[in-house]
Amino acid sequence: MVSPFVAVPSVAVLLATYNGAAYCETQLTSILWQRGVDVHVYARDDGSTDATPAILRDWVARYPNRITIIDNLGVSTGSANGNFFALLRAIDPERHDYIAFADQDDVWTPDKLAHATVRLAQEGAEGYSSDLIAYNAAVGSAWMLHKAGQPADLDYLFQGASAGCTYVLTRRAATVAVAVMAEAPAFCNDPSHDWIMYAICRSRGLKWVRDSAAEILYRQHGGNQYGAKRGTRELLSKLQVMRSSWYRDHILWLRHVVVNNAEERRVLDAVSRGNLLDRLWLIFQARRFRRTPAYVAQLRVAIALRMI
Hints:
Elements: E1 10-17, H1 24-32, E2 38-45, H2 52-62, E3 67-69, H3 80-90, E4 98-102, E5 107-108, H4 112-123, E6 127-136, E7 141-145, E8 168-170, H5 171-183, H6 193-203, E9 208-219, H7 231-243, H8 246-253, H9 262-273, H10 276-285, H11 293-304
Parallel strand pairs: 1-2, 1-4, 2-3, 6-9
Antiparallel strand pairs: 4-8, 5-9, 6-7, 6-8
Helix pairs in contact: 9-10, 10-11
């Protein structure tokens, strides 16, 4: 039980929805049942053609003081990433202690937000991410997704912290992100909001906690925009992404949101030029760019094969 003399953190939960009628009520239940925090959900629908908008209106009618619908004004961003950025622009971070991101189709444990906010306070950190449990109810399978790894000083130029649905930001970090994104140009193709948020914070020296605890059931189904893969499928998927040029384009787009200090410029310039000496230097530096030995090895292969 939370002591009545201890201030309960206020958490804004940004819920991006699109054709999520089959899943979003379970997720909303798990969010509103969070313990030890004062939760307010801000939901923005990106133009659903199913019953999702009606479901959101029904939940607002039932919990008018806990859920707010952000009107999309007839504009569809076309991606979960665009929807999350639109949500972040629409809210006032100063009204809450923390801001969290929520996918429409997951399930949170009751202590997900309390655990994250305690870790942020204990560590004096501005951003939080964690491991998570992927599961597929259709085939009765579940597995851990380990995202923490060892610290790497420039990892934010090459990867996000974890799945964005695990992220919790302080008011300060969210305010910084809003200001940075207000000045950013058009996105690269299919941007990753979690990677961009992580880069904004880490580039500015904001401390980040990567937690090995898993407080999210990360639902896998046929409609996942991204999703979780295992073993050989995961490796092949990552190599396919790198071959598509999306990964390289995203790295280079980060110039618009990082502070562009000397170390960042050196790395991004090397990626941009991509000549033999640059690629050899990047391969040598790869331990600074990824957090696990396996991902370091994958990155080195990708650089050697000119996929980056």
